Automatic annotation (TrEMBL), chains A, B:
Catalysed conversion reaction: 2-[(3S)-amino-3-carboxypropyl]-L-histidyl-[translation elongation factor 2] + 4 S-adenosyl-L-methionine = diphthine methyl ester-[translation elongation factor 2] + 4 S-adenosyl-L-homocysteine + 3 H(+)
Protein's UniProt name: diphthine methyl ester synthase
Gene Ontology MF term list: diphthine methyl ester synthase activity
Sequence ranges assigned to domain Tetrapyrrole methylase in this UniProt record: 1-237
UniProt binding sites for S-adenosyl-L-methionine: L9, D85, G88, S113, V114, L164, L222, H247
InterPro entries to which the protein is assigned, alphabetical: 4pyrrol_Mease, 4pyrrol_Methylase_sf, 4pyrrole_Mease_sub1, 4pyrrole_Mease_sub2, Dphthn_synthase
Keyword terms: Methyltransferase, S-adenosyl-L-methionine, Transferase
Pathway where this protein functions: Protein modification; peptidyl-diphthamide biosynthesis
Source organism of the structure: Kuraishia capsulata CBS 1993
Protein family membership: Belongs to the diphthine synthase family.
Length: 299, 299
């Protein structure tokens, strides 16, 4: 059996009781270590907590070496640990498809991921549209495909969860070109960088998918002991120091209810200013006012 | 401290290790018991697993008696247990706002909820739009506000998670009118009923937000030992016996990638027919084909 086990967001102890029982009894345990990190622990911390060895699975192993991971899983139990939920922001459907081809059974132990825990900011998960990724801009590559998606969400009044780039075990262009397996230190995009990139793309496109005054919520270290939210405008986010990673961000849509707004006040520097920004922003993409058809008594 | 603790979807042991430690040491432990159920256990099962008493919190207590729940939480630890995640489909922001007013600290222990675990069907959570609720139709009330939302999602190619009604501790009209506190047995909407209601509303509205051939995925007992998925058309869902509750459903949008489709084949009776339905359905709301502007060499 292949067990896909979600680890949740932060602590060693965010694993479920059922997940821990499985990890303890599996023959081999892999930790997917390239799409996210546990904020309050690391491989050594997990090994101590589980009382057993954990094998780091980098991108090469997962994408090219899945048969190595699955070896013997037809008779033995193998666990594949994923930060958050195994079917959260990054899915591992390719590993499951390969397991099916090898007639290996698969069971999932779900856990919280950013995709649902973000509800802790007080905005209803119901009124989120599609999620988008914001990746690090560089000199050569400034991908802005998120822009149209944010526009689509906001046109129908929905909030957008912005997932910020994580670069783990990346090579520099030079090292890659020379075939040197030297990796850059990990980089985690912060709120300010994400907001600056959003502002740059709006300035370039000029279609007012959003403005510098559009209300946003910054989520820092979601699910960790130092979790923090901050509500403000996109412009304020571009200057906000959100502290240690990981960060994610929400851009609000028009559908903000009074209870949601009241909840967000807790995270505002200036409630009145934030409320004004929300009311002002609701004018964008507002449905046309209803005009009753003229009654026609002739004929 | 008030701890909001997510219980996950099914087993007693779906609680996180950290959540269990908190539950064991809290002075009082409430179980929110009216918006969802744990599929593989009940109050007695939880009390045995936790080794302590659990107080059932029904709608009246949570909505009118929150001060009773919060009593003493400024000095003692109180836990409020929620099936899924505390900020999942049903949020408890009102309880948190009341705690803030009373200067009581609040900490959340997140867990999986239908809002992220639904990713186990193989469709990317990224490409889900707003979630909608399908409530039981009766003679007097056939609410169809979901229809416009499904249309909005499908116009931009997104999938829709349909959350199916749960009726726990409801009174009949007659008992309510006579002020008798007699409750009906719990009812959980099944896939077939939801699909029939969807078809009825499409027939009434006639705007082709979807058709009987629109591809869907049925999720039965998500996260439980008997979890099951079924992929088929909406018409097939209207005749599908999905077995024991709880059920939820996804209506697909245009954005289906090859890997997602390959994953869904596992859940089809007839792969080719399902693939045809997906391809056919992608024509709805497809963006207009790109036509290059005519070049104009005059002037």
């Amino acid at each position: 059996m292949l067990y896909l086990v979600g680890l949740g967001l932060s602590y060693e102890s965010d694993i479920t009781v059922r997940g821990l029982e499985i990890v303890k009894r599996c023959k081999r345990v892999y930790l997917e270590a390239y799409t996210s990190i546990l904020m309050a622990t690391d491989k050594a911390g997990l090994e101590k907590f589980y009382g057993r060895e954990v094998i780091l699975a980098d991108r090469e192993l997962v994408e090219s070496g899945s048969d190595e991971i699955l070896a013997g899983a037809d008779t033995d139990d193998i666990a594949f640990l994923v930060v958050g939920d195994p079917f959260g922001a990054t899915t591992h459907t390719d590993l499951v498809i390969r397991a099916r081809e090898l007639a290996i059974k698969v069971e999932t132990v779900h856990n919280a991921s950013v995709m649902n825990a973000i509800g802790a900011c007080g905005l209803q998960l119901y009124t989120f549209g599609q999620a988008v990724s914001i990746v690090f801009f560089n000199e050569h590559w400034r991908p802005d495909s998120f822009y149209d998606k944010v526009m689509e969400n906001r046109r129908i009044g929905l909030h957008t969860l912005l997932l910020l780039d994580i670069k783990v075990k990346e090579q520099s262009w030079e090292n890659m070109a020379r075939g040197r397996l030297i990796y850059e230190p990990p980089r985690y995009m912060d709120i300010a960088t994400a907001a600056q990139q959003l502002l740059e793309v709006e300035e370039k496109k000029g279609l007012q998918a959003y403005t510098p005054s559009t209300p946003c919520v910054a989520a820092s270290r979601l699910g960790s002991p130092t979790q923090n939210f901050k509500a403000g405008t996109l412009q304020q986010m571009a200057e906000y120091d959100a502290g240690e990673p990981l960060h994610s961000m929400i851009m609000l849509g028009r559908q903000v209810h009074d209870l949601e707004l009241e909840y967000l006040y807790e995270y505002c520097d200036d409630k009145e200013a934030f409320k004004s920004a929300v009311v002002e922003d609701q004018k964008f993409f507002a449905p046309a006012p209803y005009i009753a058809p003229e009654e026609n008594f002739s004929d």
